[in-house]
Design a protein that fits this description.
Length: about 325
């Protein structure tokens, strides 16, 4: 067979992704566009090509070269050491700001233990449809398709994931039908557990943003979370200070015993960029609880989110 016939002998879905197939000195070189495919899908297609092409009499050796020419979807993880510092709030509002800036951005709620994005986006109760066994992200009024375990399982169920199951749950969300989405913001659970490890091993983010409150303990934990990304060679885009004050989790009463500015100082100490500060504002919480994230209305409350989103936008542009 010649190279054209060889390409025709592949299943159509695979042939569509073959950008070139050449045959020289009984060696076939297959260039494959793997954009948007998961690692396991890539491996499977590679095996299939090797099996089919090497079965031909004219071929002694097959080399599959993988490229991601169409586009490579980039992931940015939003993490923190401690819980409750505002990761989910920040992730949703940054995604909305980035969408307003023209980025094709989606959001994955990787907090499979306690998903909060369906509430923030006002999409709780919506069930994603599936295509090819993969969920189709939920559209929102804010131009940010998103997906959460809270959309896939009954309320409360998501809390039960353990160990590797949590990692698999994350994979389902990241490997969904993201279509033309070029950038995925990942709202991580707090700490450095299984979801974070799966994230780093299987879906290495292009960069990470760390959120902290100005409290000392949160800062130490943020530094620890930062180390995890560092070890995995994931660049830290920068630190964000949220809630320069304290909202009582029981009564909702606000006090400001810790001041502000601690995160900026910590960033300096750790030699990391400081991306900005989100004030403690009751309206931010109310908006998040009501499916009205403040970045959506472009008013005063949107400003700090927009300013941080601009820096992430610039970081991405510089990187690519
Ligand atoms: N800047 C802010 N001003 C007022 N309230 C805020 C602010 N940021 C977050 N909140 C509120 O604080 C609570 C915790 O925020 P959020 O859920 O975003 O934190 P988290 O880090 O994602 O928490 P978890 O670790 O549980 O996932 C929420 O009720 C949220 O609305
Ligand atoms: Mg959260």
């Amino acid at each position: 067979m010649n190279s054209t016939d060889l390409k025709a002998s592949l299943p159509a879905a695979i042939a569509d992704r073959v950008t070139s197939l050449s045959l020289r000195d009984r060696r076939a070189i297959v260039v494959l566009d793997v954009a948007g495919l998961s690692t396991s899908e890539r491996d499977e297609i590679e095996l299939q090509i090797e099996r089919i092409v090497s079965a031909d009499d004219a071929v002694d050796e097959v080399s599959v070269v993988m490229t991601a020419e169409r586009f490579e979807r980039q992931l940015i993880a939003i993490g923190s050491g401690k819980g409750g510092v505002g990761k989910s709030t920040l992730t949703a509002n940054l995604a909305i700001s980035l969408a307003r800036m023209g980025r094709k951005v989606g959001l994955v709620d990787a907090d499979v233990y306690g998903p909060s994005q369906p509430v923030i986006f006002g999409t709780q109760g919506q069930k994603p449809e599936a295509r090819d066994n993969k969920p189709i992200p939920i559209e929102s009024r804010f131009g940010v398709p998103h997906l959460s375990m809270g959309h896939l399982v009954a309320p409360g169920k998501a809390l039960a994931w353990r160990g590797p199951m949590a990692g698999n749950a994350l994979a389902q969300l990241v490997e969904a039908q993201w279509g033309a989405t070029e950038l995925l913001l990942i709202d991580l659970p707090p700490g450095t557990g299984d979801v974070q490890l799966t994230m780093l091993q299987r879906f290495k983010p292009a960069g990470a943003v760390l959120v902290s409150t100005p409290q000392d303990l949160a800062l130490i934990d943020a530094a620890r979370a930062g180390q995890l990304f560092d070890q995995a060679d994931v660049p830290i885009i920068g630190l964000v200070e949220n809630m320069a004050g304290y909202a009582c989790p029981h009564c909702g009463k606000l006090s400001d015993p810790f001041g502000s500015g601690g995160v900026e100082q910590a960033a300096e100490r750790l030699d990391l960029p400081f991306l900005g500060r989100i004030p403690l504002d009751h309206a931010i919480r109310q908006g998040s609880d009501a499916g009205e994230p403040p970045a959506a209305n472009g008013g005063k409350l949107a400003e700090p989110f927009d300013a941080i989103a601009s820096q992430i936008d610039a970081w991405l542009s510089a990187k690519n």
